[in-house]
């Protein structure tokens, strides 16, 4: 399919609608290679998009160059996938290399990548993947709408609750973020530690430094989150 990569990009950016979206998601549910291509293209898009704040938008230009190069190919699906693997690796190397020069305090405010994971049932998985694409593209309102619908069907799903809370952080709706993240941060789930970090961030942005520090105190010192928590606390002091 000549325009597969364009459809994938439109899907990742949440531009597909109606029958076109339904058709694509149906194909996504049965086509393993398509799911792989979506995952790869989303990975590069996510990494470059998150670094668009860097000087002169150099990494965003790199993404556009990679995307044009990929879209220009017209080989078989297998050859396109092989080429895209190489392109993805090259783009990721450029991003990683640039981080050594441009890391700054912005990293404390960045949201994590929303991971593609099997949650429950086929239709729920497809909807979740749509939320993943919107979230990682910075379209937090759209991602939140999808996650809210999923939560109505499965209100006990902590993963949905956690990422919905993060959409409010992304939209700077601090009160809603706090309401959503407090029970997760105080609970036993695998999202507890990260929830405490983003809960602290929400409190801090609201001006409630004391509550923010209480959340940070619950985070173990070791690991990536522990390091970010220490930096955020230092910024508060």
UniProtKB/TrEMBL annotation:
Magnesium as UniProt keyword: no
Keywords: Membrane, Transmembrane, Transmembrane helix
SUPFAM superfamilies registered for this protein in UniProt: TPR-like
Matching InterPro entries: TPR-like_helical_dom_sf, TPR_rpt
Keyword Transmembrane helix attributed: yes
Segments traversing the membrane: 81-102
Protein name: Tetratricopeptide repeat protein
Organismal lineage: Bacteria, Pseudomonadati, Bacteroidota, Sphingobacteriia, Sphingobacteriales
């Amino acid at each position: 399919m000549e325009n597969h990569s364009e459809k994938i990009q439109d899907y990742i950016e949440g531009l597909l609608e109606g029958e076109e979206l339904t058709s694509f998601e149906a194909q996504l549910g049965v086509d393993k290679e398509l799911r792989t291509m979506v995952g790869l293209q989303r990975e590069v898009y996510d990494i470059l998009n998150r670094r668009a704040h860097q000087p002169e938008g150099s990494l965003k230009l790199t993404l556009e160059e990679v995307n044009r190069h990929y879209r220009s190919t017209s080989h078989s699906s297998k050859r396109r996938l092989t080429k895209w693997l190489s392109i993805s690796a090259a783009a990721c190397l450029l991003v990683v290399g640039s981080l050594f020069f441009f890391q700054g305090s912005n990293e404390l405010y960045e949201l994590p990548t929303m991971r593609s994971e099997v949650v429950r049932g086929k239709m729920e998985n497809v909807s979740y993947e749509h939320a993943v694409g919107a979230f990682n593209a910075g379209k937090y309102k759209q991602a939140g709408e999808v996650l809210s619908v999923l939560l109505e069907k499965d209100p006990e799903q902590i993963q949905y609750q956690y990422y919905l809370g993060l959409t409010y952080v992304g939209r700077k709706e601090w009160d809603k973020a706090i309401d959503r993240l407090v029970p997760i941060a105080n609970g036993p789930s695998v999202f507890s530690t990260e929830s405490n970090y983003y809960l602290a961030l929400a409190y801090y942005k609201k001006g409630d430094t004391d509550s923010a520090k209480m959340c940070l105190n619950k985070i173990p010192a070791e690991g990536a989150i522990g390091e970010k928590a220490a930096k955020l606390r230092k910024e508060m002091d």
